[in-house]
Amino acid sequence: MTPDIFLFWLLTIVTLGGGLAVILMTNPIYSALALVFTMVGIASFFITLGAYFIAGVQLIVYAGAVMVLFVMVLMLFDLKTEIAAFTRGLFTGALKIFSVGVMGGLIVGAIMMSAGSLDENIAKVNPEIEASMSPDAPTKLLGQALFSRHIFGFEALGVLLLVIAVGTVALSRSRGGTHAKQ
Amino acid sequence: MLNSEVFLDIGLNHYLIVAALLFSMGMAGVLLRRNVIVILMSIELMLNAVNLTLIAFGKFTNNVDGQIMVFFVMTIAAAEAAVGLSIAVTIFKKFREVNIRFFEHLKG
Amino acid sequence: MIQDKNFIKEADVPLGGVIFLAVFIAIFGYILILLARFIGGRRKNNSSIKRDVYECGIPGQEKKDTKVSVKFYLTAILFILFDIEIIFLYPWSLTFREFISSGSGGPIFFSMMIFLGIFIFGLFWEVKSKALEWH
Amino acid sequence: MGKDLFEISVNGIKLILIFLMMVQAVPILVWLERRGSAFIQNRFGPNRVGPLGLVQLLADAVKFLNKEDFAPDKAVKTLFYAAPIFALIPATLAFCAIPMSVPLTIGEYTFRIQGYDMNIGIVFILGVSSLAAYTILMAGWGSGNKFSLLGALRASAQIISYELALGLSIVGIIMLYGTFNLTEMVNAQQGLLQFTALGHTVQTSWLPNWGIFYQPLAAIIFFAATFAESNRLPFDLAEGEAELVAGFHVEYGGFKMLMFFIGEYGHMMLASALMVTFFFGGYLIPYATPETVHSWVHATLIESPVGANILTTLLHFISFNIKFAVFLWIFIQVRWTLPRFRYDQLMDLGWKTMLPWALGNTIATAAVIYFVA
Hints:
The complex is a heterotetramer of chains A (about 180), B (about 110), C (about 140) and D (about 375). By secondary structure, chain C is mainly α. Chain C has helices spanning about 15-40, 50, 70-100, 105-130.
């Protein structure tokens, strides 16, 4: 029972618990904080999977920026615990839960079926990372791949972010703004 | 079925199943909840489940493209959350209460 | 003796230590609060005025929800967008020297300068469009 | 976490010791602050309780413990109590990643004088310290008070805006050292200042090879941004203004208030430790590399190898603490010398001056590395 196996099961419980809490909590602020918990759990999953830089990015971008926006918006428009948190109608609700269960079951079944299809002779640990002595080998690998083969995608994202920045400012200045001239 | 081998050596399937469960939770959240902001959060949860699958495949096939894909998915997810929330805010200003059924009254 | 390189490879990111420390601090903080509640003085005067919301002495006039300006969430959105552009800078700055030494530094440098150009244009537009005006 | 049980337990105790060291350092810093401010304002400061008022802080802690544990009616209980607990976590997690001395080798074990060695040092510290905005939002929302909510939103908006400038100034540092790992950064700052420009190397004889000489602008921006991160003056708009009284912790009293202080001082300690590690050579003694110090100690002072190891580690730990104390004093000094910003000046400074300057610094560093070095 080496530590990192125990760690995996601990993280599974934390992340899946957080995921459930996001859906079941009636007060949206509690579900937002549960989502922060899930994000940190997924960042720890990335660490156990060896993608250290992506775990750092997940912590900074998701847990540190996107969720702060969610919590801030929820607090700005203080939504009390709503009465009608879930969809009305017992039958439609049950139908939805049933369809989600079927989909989840199909995915898990597909995973179990394709258990052995991944050929086993892939080295347990990435040879390039193992070879280089510097601690930043995994991130350097990522950087080299990102800027040698995926430069176009990287530039396209730069333009996308500019478009979003302009869009949200225009959207927020629409007539709804509290300071807008009604 | 619960022999110790399943519990002890963590393979690719364990990560995929965890990601699948997270994905179905996100989908259930989108279907069941009425508050626009909680629906956006469930979409974030689904996107994170996809990220987890990408990274798991990246590790077990020693290929770094999975991590680059996660990079791009994160950017798009953050952009989507930003735009989605500003729409939800404009709705809140008009109808003083954020609920999914107000979306039909949007013009244009 | 002092600085052997391969020592770093042993556990790249000791996640166990991080989780253990976080849990320990949470328990430590919780015990502190319980301690303060247990040792703290008994509630002699528990009038409703005391438990009212603190408004510099004036009894609270209105409910909690207020009209709060839109600037806060706009800053948060712009923060996310510019934060992602900074995140792209990290792997670039790490591998910048390797790319130069391996000869192909030119395209990397100029592609990042284009990216930073877009970043600066976005920031310039935000400043000019008075989106961040905290009047 | 360690090869066998002994090493794991040592690592665990080390983590707890670093956390307790931070919690213990807060009363000393508060005492230093009150005496320092008294010295500046030409008065005495606490000197009644015990010699030079040192026990005053212990008395304050006991007084805080005796305070009644009060929560207003409108407060959201769980968030109200979760906020002070969560205030301690980010600063300590980040502080434990900072190398404080040379690794100590006793027998076949090698212990590092730092909580844990991360191969993504800086990114982990940035990620964890970006979680600090939640404790403020939780406190603001949890105390159910309209003013504390407004104070919390202002404080978190301020922290967010300055995190951008912080992130960008760190890019310059990563380009300089070419690594995320803090131990590698400190090792890169050994010896004397030398750099290669257009082919030939320039060697100075008396300047140590510290980061401040390569990246002065990044150091200034980083230092100013960390002031805003820890809500220290002149950036403490959250609780400074007249109508906000005490900002997000207006409804807190007794020990919960003290925990917010511990969080704030924790961020202050983290900021000064990072300044020392990035720009002032971490635990290195200015003109000597760890090997020369070890051989000097082995030759002159102690014969036994284990003793020499311990002494070299101790010397480096003392050099780290001296630089650390200098920066803590600067943090306290600035509080009593600079006036407070208005809120729109504060946000303008963050978005319209520090961010462009940090961008300019990144572009300039990249250009110098590409064209010159």
